[in-house]
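Lab notebook, bench 4. Still working through the backlog of constructs that have no structural model yet. Next entry is a single chain of 368 residues. Request: give me the structure tokens for it.
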Amino acid sequence: MSDAPVNVHDFEAIARARMEPSAYDYYAGGANDERTLLDNCAAFDRLVLRPRVLVGAGEVDTSVQLFDSRLSMPVMLAPTALNRLGHPDGELAAARAAGAAGTVMCCSTAGSCALEEIAAEATGPLWFQLYVYRDRAVTEDLVRRAEASRCRAIVLTVDTPRLGRRERDVRNQFALPADVRLRNLEVSGRFDAGGWSRQSSFTEYVHHLMDDSLTWESVAWLRSITRLPLLIKGVLTAEDAGLALEHGAAGVIVSNHGGRQLDRVAATIDVLPEVVAAVGGRGEVYLDGGVRRGVDVLVALALGARAVFVGRPHCFALAVGGEAGVTQMLGILRDELVNAMQLLGAPRTADVVRAHVAPGLLAPPAVR
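Model written out:
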């Protein structure tokens, strides 16, 4: 019997056995009781698909146009920090795999490889996720570096004025290993990010450097310093979706930070419809959180998302097999998506509509 991964869940099980425990917990854990972390996945089981038959879905087209990029499928790699906790090649391997799969990698400010290093290895489009630092000159420098690295969008994370209380990290006294450094800040030359992180917890590092006083005017300022499309990541309400567009955003990412920030907020798939309604076609809407199957992608598309991001799946796939692992994980999701579109009766991603989804409680999945 082969122990090779058959689905996305398998990568996590294998990674858990291979990774250093505190590194695994950093990837896997959420805030407080991890209610939101669990519900991000469980919420998909509260929805059922309504397939249509005899629609000639023998050949399907999973591609989607996002800004100036034509992607092979509406699945992208989410911005995830510290990929070298899982594999020595870190973000470099993930970027190569995303390009090979014909999709976007969104690079994290808190990456363990510098943006320029990733851009040199990337074979596909990159977006750049941005945190705003207390020193606005650092933030502007990061934007300029993203532009110079030919990133095609800026993704501003707005749900992190400080880190959520991640109890696994507290128990593990998580700090960065000496060989895993916050390369984007090192390259900026304004912080000894590696030295700071070795002398303190990762949480203390974040609270020392990040600006916890952001307002919507901060978004307007960021909009004023770049011509790249600006997406606001961390939106969970119709009200904030509307404000994002009013302040110049090209769209929003419905995200609760993978359940790592405020616990007991709603699962992202549950709030997606209200955000889509508030945006009303005036901007892009993406979903981040809980996507583990091709059918999850279909549900998100049916509820109005243009595409989805996967975060933990690519971290665990990276830990299992480096670039090949991430390539395999993305291939599994695409194969599942093709199969699900055929069975749903939706030959193109644009054919997946609201009528394909209805409320309905599914039984929990069998123990894997």
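Notes after review: Residues 312-344 form the longest helix (33 residues). Residues 35 and 264 are 6 Å apart (CA to CA). Flag for follow-up if needed.
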